Amino acid sequence: MSTITPPSPHPAVDRLAQPAPPRRRRRPTGRALTYTVLVVGVLLWLLPFVWMVLGSVKTQREILTKPPTIWPQDPTFDNFGRWFTDLNFGQFFTNSVVVAVVTVLGNLLFCSMVGYALAKMDFPGKKALFALVMIMLMVPGVVTFVPLFVQVTSLGLLNTYPALILPFLTQPLGVFLMRQFMLGIPEPLMEAARIDGAGELRIFARVVMPLCGPPLATLGILTFLGSWNNFLWPLVAAQSQDMYTLPVALSLYSTGQQATDYGLLLAGAVLVITPILLLFVALQRYFVQGIATVGLK
Fold first, then answer.
1. What would the mean pLDDT of 63-69 be, rounded to a whole number?
2. Comparing C-alpha atoms, which of 116, 140, 141, 142 is closest to residue 130?
3. Which of 72, 200, 226, 297 can pair with 180 through a Cys bridge, CB separation 3.0 to 4.6 Å?
């Protein structure tokens, strides 16, 4: 007489009792090919930066030597020193810092407020306004330079800090990032604040903003990079060297009497990119976290 084995009351126990399927082993040849491609790609990407850094500590005579040398034979920091002594590096650096910091603060505030309105508030024309933001994402910034220049000139702001800052205090990309993140904030959390008597401004400042650390870090880094590297608008709006930012100043000396002073130009390029590299290294964790969080929506 045959016996019937009763089924297990927990299907998970049955799955655990079954032998695990064999894991597919990656072929050593495919892994070596992957690493080779990655290493070659990284070296090609780093080559211009390494060449720039090494060239910045070479003398003009060594830079023009043929065949060119890779490692500096007689390293010198005179190229960096000339930016601080002969050229007005301090004023250019101050202009870049003021413009970048104020632009970042403005974007963090205004993009957060617009993103909150589009994500958590109901008002007529909300969908049309968000569609307009998406359309502005696709419009190249260069096409707005002429009307911006006319407006800045008519307001008498040409060659001032407001002329360099005001057109970029709010960006469509920042509004989009903040809206996408705020959509994931639970509504019961905000309803509880409303029941306690909090208004929209207080909910925005006390409930929503403390939860927006990752997207704020991402928006701050992206805005700082864009403002620090911005070249065309400062070239148009700044009419004197006292208002030049670092990229404009670097282009000024690359076309003037120092156009063939390659060591000086390479040292200036190193000075321009050093702050943004330090900022990215310091906030890399928040930047990746913010991009990943917003990308889930």
1. 83
2. 116
3. 297
